[in-house]
Amino acid sequence: MTTISELESEIRDIINNPRKRYALLQNTAAWNLLCSCLDVICDTELSFDAFLKQREVKDDGEKYLLVYGALQALFIQQDAVTNLAEALNISYTPDPLLKHIREIRNASVGHPPKRG
Which ranges constitute the DSSP H helices of the chain? Predict the structure, then answer.
């Protein structure tokens, strides 16, 4: 199975082809959005790798920070993928399961005091 990091790298290879890059650079805002989204996807993958390699944590505060951080990274990565599709002018429909996970994240750690 292809990893997210591999897909991100493939996209970078494609958009950095001189002809493709020239065409994309005609819209500076879209190019900047594209590059930012790829950077965010890369950064969030690094955070997930670190989370999964985490040693045993005994402090409750650190546990909360790790879980909240992982949930926030997932949220940020989902936004980056949506914006990446927008920057490339391609149609994208989020997976319903990811959408559900996003809703759970919002209900649990987003703004829980305001939730029913």
Answer: 4-15, 18-24, 28-52, 60-87, 96-105
The tens digit of pLDDT for each residue in 9-59 reads: 999 999 999 999 999 999 999 999 999 999 999 999 999 999 999 888 889
Spell 64-83 as b/e; 16+ CB within 10 A means b.
eeeeeebbebbbebbebbeb
* Integer Cα distance of 53 and 46 in angstroms: 11
Task: Say if residues 87 and 33 touch (Cβ distance below 8 Å).
Answer: yes
Cα angle for residues 37, 39, 41 (degrees, 5° grid): 70
DSSP one-letter code for 56 = -
Residue type, 5: S
Secondary structure (3-state) at 91: coil
Give this prediction's pTM: 0.86
